[in-house]
Design a protein that fits this description.
10 strands; Rossmann fold; 9 helices; three-stranded antiparallel β-sheet; alpha/beta
């Protein structure tokens, strides 16, 4: 008896190699996959603007990275004793405006270089709902400012496709080798409402499929469908019942490897997993003979793997 309804995920015609630079932008699900990549020695840079949810804010962030935009004092504002940017996650907020701008501009410059050399760009849309500030600028973060300053809008598929098709064309000119992976986050945004969340996800899915059909360098990885349709059980979610838990993330990650990565990368990940587990091991008694033996064995394994994969640096 089957308790899940698995579905085949087609392998990409172009596949990711461990040595190819990757840039990831989008929702907290992008952070989860980005962490998996960086832990396994991928040259991956994740969310240079912090976590972003709506497609237009993600699009604006990529524009900043392409142009290597330098934010100035006019681009930030003071609220609750912290300097903030409407286009960035709150992790960039700081009591010192100079430090806030330094953190923002450092990340943009790093992302500019990464995007210039990257072979892969992974975009994760979270929600089709967006907020405009004073009926003008789409913001990435409202920072709990008075609601009267914002208008909530459900972005239509046509607007998302139009803005992103422009961005795909610009990206092709900026970096002709770039391949783009689109995903829709499996995180449910229940604060919008269950029905509203489903409308939002439907718009995002439709927009992404239109973009992949129009562009040969664009691919779709069905993270949303894997969690919602294949796993489809609350035991695969955290206690808040909206975020996929550790088991679900690992399940999606394995599907990602099988679908997106080439054979060399799959072999490397398989060889590296035992070392990663050892590196994550908590050593409570570091001065014992057993601990010293464990560390020496780990160094030997690292040295052997570095010989097999010369690009690997510990």
């Amino acid at each position: 008896m089957n308790f899940i309804l698995p579905f085949p995920v087609k392998k990409f015609t172009a596949q990711v190699n461990i040595q190819e630079p990757v840039l990831l932008l989008g929702s907290c699900f992008a952070e989860e996959i980005g962490l998996k990549l960086t832990e396994r020695k991928f040259n991956a840079l994740v969310n240079p603007h912090g976590i972003l949810y709506n497609p237009l804010s993600i699009c604006n962030a990529i524009t900043d990275c392409i142009e290597d935009k330098e934010y100035g004092r006019q681009d930030i504002f003071l609220h609750d004793e912290l300097w903030r940017s409407f286009q960035h996650h709150s992790k960039f907020s700081d009591t010192n405006p100079g430090q806030c701008l330094e953190n923002i501009n450092r990340e943009i410059t790093a992302a500019h270089q990464q995007l210039k050399n990257a072979k892969w760009l992974m975009i994760t849309f979270g929600s089709a709902f967006a907020y405009t500030h004073n009926n003008n600028m789409v913001v990435a973060n409202c920072y709990k400012l008075p609601s009267a300053q914002f208008k909530k809008v459900l972005l239509p598929k046509e607007e998302i496709v139009a803005e992103w098709q422009k961005q795909v064309n610009i990206l092709k000119a900026f970096n002709p080798q770039l391949q783009i992976i689109f995903t829709v986050s499996p995180v449910r945004y229940v604060r919008d409402g269950i029905i509203e969340n489903n409308r939002s996800k439907g718009i995002l899915s439709d927009a992404v499929h239109t973009l992949t059909e129009q562009n040969t360098n664009c691919f779709y990885f069905p993270a949303y469908e894997i969690v919602i349709d294949e796993l489809r059980d609350y035991r695969f979610f955290k206690e808040d019942l909206v975020h996929p838990n550790h088991v679900a993330i690992n399940y999606v990650w394995q599907k990602f490897i099988d679908t997106v990565c080439d054979d060399e990368t799959k072999n490397f990940i398989s060889d590296y997993e035992p070392i990663l587990k050892s590196l994550q091991h908590r050593d409570l008694q570091s001065d014992t003979n057993a601990s010293l033996k464990f560390k020496n064995q780990l160094k030997e394994k690292q040295s052997a793997l570095a010989k097999k994969y010369p690009f690997l640096i510990f």
